[in-house]
Protein backbone atom coordinates (compact mmCIF):
# COMPACT_ATOMS: atom_id res chain seq x y z
CA UNK A 1 0.00 0.00 0.00
CA UNK A 2 1.30 3.32 -1.00
CA UNK A 3 0.46 6.07 1.53
CA UNK A 4 0.48 9.64 0.44
CA UNK A 5 1.39 12.32 3.00
CA UNK A 6 -0.71 15.44 2.89
CA UNK A 7 0.71 18.69 4.15
CA UNK A 8 -1.45 21.42 5.66
CA UNK A 9 -3.14 22.62 8.81
CA UNK A 10 -6.29 21.43 10.40
CA UNK A 11 -9.20 23.74 11.09
CA UNK A 12 -8.55 23.49 14.83
CA UNK A 13 -4.95 24.61 14.41
CA UNK A 14 -6.02 27.60 12.31
CA UNK A 15 -8.65 28.65 14.87
CA UNK A 16 -6.09 28.45 17.69
CA UNK A 17 -3.64 30.66 15.77
CA UNK A 18 -6.35 33.19 14.91
CA UNK A 19 -7.47 33.27 18.55
CA UNK A 20 -3.92 33.92 19.76
CA UNK A 21 -3.44 36.71 17.19
CA UNK A 22 -6.74 38.32 18.22
CA UNK A 23 -5.70 38.21 21.88
CA UNK A 24 -2.31 39.78 21.13
CA UNK A 25 -3.96 42.50 19.01
CA UNK A 26 -6.47 43.30 21.76
CA UNK A 27 -3.67 43.70 24.28
CA UNK A 28 -1.43 45.70 21.94
CA UNK A 29 -4.13 48.18 20.81
CA UNK A 30 -4.59 51.22 23.04
CA UNK A 31 -7.96 51.67 24.68
CA UNK A 32 -9.68 54.40 22.65
CA UNK A 33 -12.74 54.50 24.87
CA UNK A 34 -10.80 56.28 27.63
CA UNK A 35 -9.06 58.95 25.62
CA UNK A 36 -10.68 62.01 27.18
CA UNK A 37 -7.21 63.40 27.95
CA UNK A 38 -6.20 63.00 24.29
CA UNK A 39 -9.49 64.57 23.12
CA UNK A 40 -8.98 67.42 25.57
CA UNK A 41 -5.49 67.98 24.18
CA UNK A 42 -6.91 68.15 20.64
CA UNK A 43 -9.67 70.58 21.69
CA UNK A 44 -7.10 72.73 23.47
CA UNK A 45 -4.95 72.82 20.35
CA UNK A 46 -7.99 73.80 18.26
CA UNK A 47 -8.75 76.72 20.59
CA UNK A 48 -5.08 77.79 20.53
CA UNK A 49 -5.00 77.44 16.73
CA UNK A 50 -8.01 79.74 16.38
CA UNK A 51 -6.24 82.45 18.40
CA UNK A 52 -2.96 81.96 16.51
CA UNK A 53 -4.77 82.06 13.16
CA UNK A 54 -6.54 85.33 14.00
CA UNK A 55 -3.20 86.88 14.97
CA UNK A 56 -1.38 85.63 11.89
CA UNK A 57 -4.16 86.86 9.58
CA UNK A 58 -3.90 90.32 11.16
CA UNK A 59 -0.18 90.42 10.54
CA UNK A 60 -0.50 88.95 7.04
CA UNK A 61 -3.32 91.19 5.78
CA UNK A 62 -2.72 94.31 7.88
CA UNK A 63 -6.42 94.25 8.81
CA UNK A 64 -7.71 93.63 12.34
CA UNK A 65 -8.72 90.02 12.90
CA UNK A 66 -9.74 88.52 16.21
CA UNK A 67 -11.57 85.86 18.09
CA UNK A 68 -14.65 85.80 20.23
CA UNK A 69 -15.14 83.28 22.97
CA UNK A 70 -18.83 82.75 23.78
CA UNK A 71 -18.93 81.70 27.42
CA UNK A 72 -22.43 80.24 27.48
CA UNK A 73 -21.83 78.13 24.36
CA UNK A 74 -18.17 77.16 25.00
CA UNK A 75 -17.48 78.28 21.47
CA UNK A 76 -14.68 80.22 19.78
CA UNK A 77 -15.12 82.08 16.49
CA UNK A 78 -12.66 84.00 14.34
CA UNK A 79 -13.72 87.29 12.79
CA UNK A 80 -12.47 90.12 10.65
CA UNK A 81 -13.18 93.69 11.75
CA UNK A 82 -14.56 96.25 9.33
CA UNK A 83 -13.03 99.49 10.59
CA UNK A 84 -14.72 101.81 8.08
CA UNK A 85 -17.37 102.87 10.61
CA UNK A 86 -17.60 103.42 14.33
CA UNK A 87 -18.23 101.17 16.14
CA UNK A 88 -16.46 98.51 14.14
CA UNK A 89 -18.46 95.81 12.45
CA UNK A 90 -17.54 92.20 13.00
CA UNK A 91 -17.49 90.16 9.83
CA UNK A 92 -17.84 86.44 10.37
CA UNK A 93 -16.39 85.53 6.99
CA UNK A 94 -13.06 84.04 8.06
CA UNK A 95 -12.58 80.45 6.92
CA UNK A 96 -10.55 77.71 8.54
CA UNK A 97 -7.44 77.24 6.37
CA UNK A 98 -7.77 73.44 6.17
CA UNK A 99 -11.46 72.67 6.61
CA UNK A 100 -12.61 75.53 4.35
CA UNK A 101 -15.55 76.16 6.71
CA UNK A 102 -16.24 79.30 8.71
CA UNK A 103 -13.81 79.37 11.62
CA UNK A 104 -16.25 78.45 14.38
CA UNK A 105 -15.42 75.76 16.93
CA UNK A 106 -17.46 74.47 19.89
CA UNK A 107 -16.23 72.39 22.80
CA UNK A 108 -17.68 68.87 22.25
CA UNK A 109 -20.58 68.20 24.63
CA UNK A 110 -19.67 64.52 25.02
CA UNK A 111 -16.24 65.49 26.36
CA UNK A 112 -17.60 67.75 29.08
CA UNK A 113 -18.33 66.13 32.38
CA UNK A 114 -20.10 67.88 35.21
CA UNK A 115 -19.52 71.58 35.51
CA UNK A 116 -18.31 74.12 33.01
CA UNK A 117 -15.81 72.65 30.53
CA UNK A 118 -14.31 76.03 29.57
CA UNK A 119 -13.64 79.19 31.55
CA UNK A 120 -11.89 82.34 30.34
CA UNK A 121 -10.02 84.95 32.31
CA UNK A 122 -9.12 88.08 30.32
CA UNK A 123 -7.15 90.90 31.95
CA UNK A 124 -7.09 94.29 30.21
CA UNK A 125 -5.24 97.54 30.88
CA UNK A 126 -8.52 99.35 31.27
CA UNK A 127 -12.22 98.61 31.09
CA UNK A 128 -13.32 96.33 28.27
CA UNK A 129 -17.06 96.12 27.59
CA UNK A 130 -16.64 92.88 25.56
CA UNK A 131 -14.03 90.85 27.45
CA UNK A 132 -14.65 87.72 25.39
CA UNK A 133 -13.68 89.42 22.11
CA UNK A 134 -10.06 90.18 21.28
CA UNK A 135 -8.68 91.60 18.07
CA UNK A 136 -5.11 91.86 16.83
CA UNK A 137 -3.69 94.88 15.06
CA UNK A 138 -1.30 94.67 12.08
CA UNK A 139 1.62 94.12 14.49
CA UNK A 140 -0.09 91.17 16.18
CA UNK A 141 -0.80 93.09 19.40
CA UNK A 142 -4.04 92.00 21.14
CA UNK A 143 -6.68 94.59 22.05
CA UNK A 144 -10.21 94.75 23.41
CA UNK A 145 -12.79 95.04 20.65
CA UNK A 146 -14.93 97.60 22.48
CA UNK A 147 -13.45 100.07 23.10
CA UNK A 148 -10.70 99.48 20.54
CA UNK A 149 -8.02 101.34 22.52
CA UNK A 150 -7.80 99.06 25.58
CA UNK A 151 -4.75 96.81 25.49
CA UNK A 152 -4.94 93.18 26.58
CA UNK A 153 -2.51 92.06 29.30
CA UNK A 154 -3.34 88.34 29.43
CA UNK A 155 -6.05 86.02 28.25
CA UNK A 156 -6.45 82.56 29.71
CA UNK A 157 -8.78 79.77 28.62
CA UNK A 158 -9.08 76.84 31.02
CA UNK A 159 -10.49 73.67 29.46
CA UNK A 160 -11.66 70.78 31.63
CA UNK A 161 -12.72 67.23 30.79
CA UNK A 162 -13.28 64.92 33.74
CA UNK A 163 -10.20 65.12 35.96
CA UNK A 164 -8.01 66.56 33.17
CA UNK A 165 -7.39 70.28 32.69
CA UNK A 166 -5.44 72.26 30.09
CA UNK A 167 -4.89 75.98 29.64
CA UNK A 168 -4.45 78.24 26.63
CA UNK A 169 -2.63 81.49 27.43
CA UNK A 170 -2.37 84.59 25.26
CA UNK A 171 0.31 87.06 26.34
CA UNK A 172 -0.74 90.65 25.79
CA UNK A 173 2.75 92.01 25.33
CA UNK A 174 4.14 89.48 22.87
CA UNK A 175 0.92 88.05 21.40
CA UNK A 176 2.35 84.59 22.02
CA UNK A 177 -0.11 81.72 22.49
CA UNK A 178 0.98 78.85 24.72
CA UNK A 179 -0.69 75.62 25.82
CA UNK A 180 -0.16 74.07 29.25
Structure write-up:
- By secondary structure, the protein is of the alpha+beta class.
- 24% of the residues lie in helices and 31% in strands.
- Strands 1, 2, 3, 4, 6 and 7 form a six-stranded antiparallel β-sheet that branches. Strands 5-8-9-10 form a four-stranded antiparallel β-sheet, covered by helices on one side.
- The longest helix has 26 residues, at 36-61.
- The chain is elongated and about 105 Å long.
Run of helices and strands: HHEEEEEEEEEE
Count of DSSP E strands? Answer: 10
Strand content: 25-35%
Structural class: alpha+beta
User: Uncertain runs with pLDDT below 50, 5 residues or more?
Assistant: none
Radius of gyration: 26 Å
Principal-axes geometry comes out as: elongated
Q: What does the main sheet amount to?
A: 6 strands, antiparallel
Distance between the termini: 80 Å
List keywords for this structure.
four-stranded antiparallel beta sheet; 180 residues; 31% strand
Topology:
Layout (H helix, E strand, L loop, with lengths): L10 H18 L7 H26 L3 E6 L4 E8 L6 E3 L12 E3 L11 E7 L8 E4 L5 E3 L7 E10 L2 E8 L5 E3 L1
Antiparallel strand pairs: 1-2, 1-6, 2-3, 2-4, 5-8, 6-7, 8-9, 9-10
Sum this structure up briefly:
With 180 residues, this protein is of the alpha+beta class. It is 24% helix and 31% strand.
